Structures are given as structure tokens and as C-alpha cells.
């Protein structure tokens, strides 16, 4: 999430003085395509199989949709016993795992022990929401990624940890706690490991206050359900990085939102970086899933706006 400028300056004192090699490249033009009503804050977004965007709001515990074809937006679902949504991921076609909890966008404060995972099923005519599990030990759940249709990884930004949770049994455990996920406190807020994705046996994550973009091997034993993790290694020394997406073209590139720099940064497979697009207060990114928008990067922002940028 985008922080007050004073927090960003303080965080910079703790960050490495080096950065990934930065290349100059042609930037895509980001165009505003939608704005949520009021003082909205979009923390995360995903693209549905039908091409609609799902927008997870941090300012209220609501999930919204936006259809790029009709240009219409609407509330999809609300969630009880929470102030906010943070992470969202698709676990099977049009079925999602959503992270809820108590975060104040006014005071930038987090309530430990308030974080839960919900299942959201959009395959029927009416959205179906079910709480999977409230985790009393949680510090600040934020990123979430599927290991398979039944198991997810969850990033705890306050405890420098990755959890795993089975969506069928509600069983959960800590898979990994590591210094690469840790961050210094900025007042009452600790925000380390943040964005989280999983692909082909590897989890990728950003560390917002602590700095860096990392990968770590993660294995799910399908017979026992046990999840194990290796040692994280740094891909790029990014600062104040939040959510990201792996490029769908198989190039091994990543597109990372850096809200304090108002920048979407491309990290190539060799670790070199270049500015892909500019979007004020960007928080999350996702590529389109249709034939006509597969190269379109959708960008959510902390001021409730959604942008799109064509990535060549």
C-alpha cells in the first residue's frame, strides 16, 4: 500500500544503496479507464476468465468488478468482521481466495489476529462467499497465491512469514520465516513481504519496507499435503515494491508496482530493470486474459482508479 511520504523517506534509510541495473526503454502510456466512487483504495486486482476485473478494496471490506467491454463497475460482495480486503487470487476457474482483516487507511494501523481467508465462488448466478479460516496468530496478511486448487500460500507482512492453508480443511501452518521478508517498523506499521505469486515450484515475493524482489522454491507433497520451502534468493534490489505479475509471454519477465515512484517496473529474466509505465499511486497489476487484451496490463491504484497500458 502507498505510504505517507514521511514513511517512505524513513524506509529508505533502511534500504540497500544499490539497485537492479536500470535500462532506458520505451514506456507504455497508461490510460485511466475506471474510477471507484468516493475515496476508494484498491489494494489488489485479478482478471476473471470472462475478462472482467475484480478489485479488492482496502478502505472497505468489499470486492468490486469492472468490465472493460461495457465500462461498467459494480459491487460483487461484502465481508463481515473486517475493515479491509488485501490479497485475492484465483484458485480454480472463477473461484477465488480472498484475504480480509482490519487495516485503517486513515491511521495506517493494522490489527493483529484479525486476518482471515475467504472463498469466493463466482461460477453461479449469485456470488457465494464462505469464510475458510480466521487466523488468531496472524500479524498482517496481505499477498496470497495458489499452490493448487485446494492450497494457498499467504504472506504475513508483519511476521516475515509465509503461511500455507488448505481451503477444504482450513488447516494452516507457517512454511517459512526469513530475514528477506522482514522489514523495519514505520511507526505502528510493519510491512515486509507483500506481493506473492507461485509458478512451477517457485514462489516470488516483494518486500515493501525492507526492499527487494525475491524467489524461493516451495514444494507441495500431493500425497501428504505437506508444504516445504527452501532459501530465498534476490532477483532484483527494488525499493518500496508491492504487487506484481509474471509476464504471460514466457519471457521470464515481471512487472512490479512501485507506488511511491508512480512506476510499473519491468524486471527481465536476467535481473535488469526498466520503467514500463507510469501510473500514479499504482498498487497492483494484472494482464488481460482475452485474445484482444492479452498484452494489456491493468493497473489498480490506491486512489481508486484503474489504468490500462498496452505492453508490446
Q: What can you tell me about this protein's structure?
A:
This protein has 312 residues and is mostly beta strands. The chain has one domain (27-310): TolB, C-terminal domain (Neuraminidase, 6 Propeller). Helix content is 3%, strand content 49%. The protein is built from one helix and 28 strands. The chain has one helix at 5-12, and strands at 22-23, 31-35, 42-47, 53-57, 62-67, 72-78, 84-92, 95-101, 103-104, 109-110, 116-121, 128-134, 141-146, 151-156, 161-166, 172-177, 193-199, 202-207, 213-220, 227-229, 233-236, 244-246, 254-258, 263-267, 273-278, 282-287, 296-301, 305-310. The strands form seven sheets. It has a five-stranded mixed β-sheet, with no helix packed on it. A hairpin with a 2-residue loop joins strand 7 (84-92) and strand 8 (95-101). The longest helix has 8 residues, at 5-12. The chain is globular.
